[in-house]
Amino acid sequence: MSEMRLRPRAVVFDMDGLLVNTESLRIRAVEDCARALGAPVRLDLFVAFVGGASADARSALEKHLAEDLPPQFWRTYRTCVEARMEELAPMPGALELLAWLEDRDIPRAIATSAARAAVEKYCAPLGLLSRFQTVVAKEDYARKKPAPDAYLEAAARLGVAPRDCLALEDSYNGVRAAAAAGMPTIMAPDVLPATGEMHELCVAVVRDLNDVLARLRARPPRA
């Protein structure tokens, strides 16, 4: 895709790992859990679940949990996650980008694979929910990412054609979903590094949302 298309009438944000730092905190919680239990955790199997796992990845993790890890793993993990979520914060550049979009009356949506309860749990304390016109959570569409349903629903709710929306993602399946919806997409990797496929599907791969803001400032939205 060409970066010349980066003149959005609306912007659609993923949540985990893009808008808030939940993905990296969950990975740290896995590490905390491994230390607490003295267990040989295969972190790569947990990382594979970022943005939604394939059937093979799910099978591999289930085998790892059944054969390598103690039965109290999930209970300990949940405790570690709750502790790590004390460090919950917007991702770098998120607040600045939202303020810039608000100043220009550019509509904004969240399109996430998370449940609505999770969106409220993680975004509301940071004052983020009121900054979006709509939230599309996993209860709101039939097919999960990498299917385009979440992004198509977000565009429909905003009343903007998908081609005129900019999608912001951090995960492989999220990028695939946004691209399948026909949205110019920027990837800001968090836990997962960008692959060749991601570079092909995206108009840009950036360090963080500060870089997205810099690109938008350089290419003002269309009148």
Write the layout of secondary structure elements.
Elements: E1 10-13, H1 22-37, H2 43-47, H3 55-67, H4 73-84, H5 94-103, E2 108-111, H6 116-123, E3 134-136, H7 149-158, E4 165-169, H8 172-180, E5 185-187, H9 196-201, E6 204-205, H10 209-218
Parallel strand pairs: 1-2, 1-4, 2-3, 4-5, 5-6
Helix share, percent: 40-55%
Anisotropy-based shape = globular
Supply the CATH architecture of the largest domain: 3-Layer(aba) Sandwich
| Beta-strand content estimate | 5-15%
The major sheet is characterized as: 6 strands, parallel
Quick one: how many beta strands? 6
User: Secondary-structure element sequence?
Assistant: EHHHHHEHEHEHEHEH
Radius of gyration: 18 Å
**CATH domain class name of the largest domain:** Alpha Beta
Structural class: alpha/beta
CATH fold topology of the largest domain = Rossmann fold
Tally of helical segments:
10
Mean pLDDT score: 90
Unreliable spans: none
CATH superfamily of the largest domain: HAD superfamily/HAD-like
Q: Order of strands across the biggest sheet? A: 3-2-1-4-5-6
Straight-line distance between termini: 22 Å
Question: What is the total domain count?
Answer: 2
What does this structure look like?
This protein is 44% helix and 9% strand. It is α/β, with parallel strands linked by helices. The protein folds into 2 domains: 149 residues, 3-Layer(aba) Sandwich (Rossmann fold); 65 residues, no CATH class.
